[in-house]
């Protein structure tokens, strides 16, 4: 079966849209409508219209510019583009032709004449300008386009400068806020730990439980703040590479993780190989491992297992954190590395977070020239694997 010839109509006025739709559908055309220039261009890319009707007065990218862009699409070179306009001022027809239109119909639309006019253009009718006039008009049309472009560049440059100012203010605000919050939080955490360890006198079981809850919540808060501060810091400073034994950094992190696993009723397995010293940024490396472990604990239910594996290879150090937790859907696995991105785990349970942890992890891994890989399946668990290359000594 033959497809109906398609007319692309670019028009923002609903009355005209309805009229043209009615008149042309009755004659066996299929009319697709775009409200503006960009919409028309998008439709033209995905469809193959037999003819385009474009209102020259559409807002934004106007009908002239839309026509010029349509013409630049390979499959639109020979498709008739007809201008529709209420502008009867001298020269408007010529301007439309020079922009790439093949014909010009004035508004109001003559419903009786329209189908025959459309058919003529589809059959090959083309209006042309005398060559001398075309050259002259093309020059001034190009001039106009360049001026518009210049104005847009100026606007964008200004907007960009304003955005950069706002971005700096935001950074400053976040940095100040997190510093201000961190100081009181540190003393809060310190005292809660003293209570928890029984160093400030005996507590009743109820008080012990309350202190434990307060401690956990404060630790979450501290983690968010650290990530926020670190996110600001790590983007603006260069790494400070030092040669160190990875175990020196890993040991205290593993000890803290064991404690946390016991509290959260999780199994925690550690598999370490012999490790040669490696050149890394100490605090960045520590932050990286802590974040991966924190996530594994945070997103694994009691009774589950977290595994921490470090393997030393001649050219790189491999760190792998596996959990049997809630897992990450395939469609989210790229996005979780974006700043502030969090998977909607509303079906599971509330996990307070900032969505910054993995953005920081990726930044640190890349700044070390390394790679990060993720394997995960919802309900089964996740495994984050990081490879940090050993730096080549120049001339060595
Ligand atoms: P945060 O944990 O602070 O929300 P992250 O950047 O560390 O931020 O993680 C982003 C998102 O990735 C989390 O909100 C969570 O949905 C998901 N995610 C990270 N690690 C895991 C994991 N081990 N298991 C399941 N989901 C995870």
TrEMBL record:
Domain Histidine kinase: from-to ranges: 176-392
Example GO molecular function: ATP binding
Protein name, entry field: histidine kinase
A GO cellular-component term linked to this record: plasma membrane
Organism: Chloroflexus aurantiacus (strain ATCC 29366 / DSM 635 / J-10-fl)
Alphabetical keyword list: ATP-binding, Cell membrane, Kinase, Membrane, Nucleotide-binding, Phosphoprotein, Transferase, Two-component regulatory system
Residues covered by the Response regulatory domain: 6-122
EC number: 2.7.13.3
PTM annotation (4-aspartylphosphate): residues: 55
UniProt KW Transferase keyword: yes
EC supergroup of this enzyme: transferase
